[in-house]
Design goal:
Elements: E1 6-7, H1 17-25, H2 45-62, E2 68-73, H3 76-88, E3 94-99, H4 102-111, E4 116-122, E5 146-149, E6 151-152, E7 157-158, E8 170-173, E9 190-194, E10 205-210, H5 227-232, H6 242-257, H7 260-281, E11 286-287, E12 298-302, H8 306-318, E13 321-322, E14 333-336, H9 343-360
Parallel strand pairs: 1-13, 3-4, 3-5, 5-8, 8-9
Antiparallel strand pairs: 2-10, 6-7, 9-10, 11-12, 12-14
Helix pairs in contact: 1-6, 2-6, 3-4, 7-9
Bound molecules: 4'-deoxy-4'-aminopyridoxal-5'-phosphate.
4'-deoxy-4'-aminopyridoxal-5'-phosphate is lined by residues 11, 76-78, 103, 149, 153, 173, 175-176, 194.
Length: 364
Amino acid sequence: MMERVYNFSAGPAVLPLEVLEQAQKEFISYEGSGMNVMEMSHRSKTYGGIIAEAESLLRELMDIPGNYKVLFMQGGASTQFAMVPLNLMNKNKKADYIRTGQWAKKSQQQAEQYGDIHVVASSEDKTFNYIPEYSADHIRPDADYVHFVTNNTIYGTRFTELPEAGNIPLVTDMSSCILSQVYDVSKYGVIYAGAQKNIGPAGVTIAIVREDLIGNAMDITPIMLNYKTYADSDSMYNTPPTYSIYIAMLVFRWLKAQGGVAAMEKRNEEKAGWVYDFLDNSKLFSATVAPKDRSLMNIPFVLPTDELNAQFVKEAEATGMVNLKGHRSVGGMRASIYNAMPDEGVKALVEFMKRFEMANGGKA
Ligand code: PMP
């Protein structure tokens, strides 16, 4: 069997080996059914058990209050960029957006098709390498919601505190940080996330929606983009992405066996800490994000020249550490270290960076 690599991809990303092995065991016949989960009717009793377990495990892991619905959808986080305004921007047709990166910008641009959007704060002036501050009076009191991206995958920043929004519902894109640390769900109106980082395979998109925000969609809302459609049918109005939800269930079981989200948060802080400590003490490498806004999941860093960046990515790949090239808008490198990235992978990366610095320090 081929050795597994350490995969630092931003997404789709590394999954826990135990999950892949379990899926492999059940590949030909799931629990005596004689078929793979992807061959099964979504209305079967067996599949009903899978989606119900996925939901109840997520509720347990995130301590989701009873007045929130958990919805399993398709279309990726990008479809939520439309679903959020269609479902929520229905009272005053106004919403406020915090612009902290490409995804924040795309969500804002999509919402602009449906109403009056105001950008509360932006960090575009410095290539989004920090989380902008603003005073509460920048939020319009009649905004239907305030939208922000909790963790900015491309730039490696995260909100460490909730943005100010008064009584206005907070809506957040948690695609690249859901389940990585403890979040108090009761503080949000809507949390949504594409699955392909901390949840499972691409194909399923999860939204956690406060019940009072469901059922007021704009008249033009297609049935498939209405939260109510999913809430009323236990996410079974049509065929859900069955296999992706099954793998998500296995990931949730794995997370629970690891001690849950609080234990994961502690490990993620440690793992990210090893990389940031190295970067902050290095004479050759540097982190691109100010310490207070640094992501635990995506760590961008740079070397002094493009040649060294390219050399680093190439040599890392040769030692089995892949997908370290940074996003084209930032350059350099980016190590994505989601929940499923083992400690050994992060340690191997830091060891490699040390060796690289020793070998190339003279070139700086
Ligand atoms: N939001 C964030 C924060 C992301 O990182 C991504 C994907 N990298 C997206 C949205 C887009 O997700 P999708 O491809 O599922 O539409």
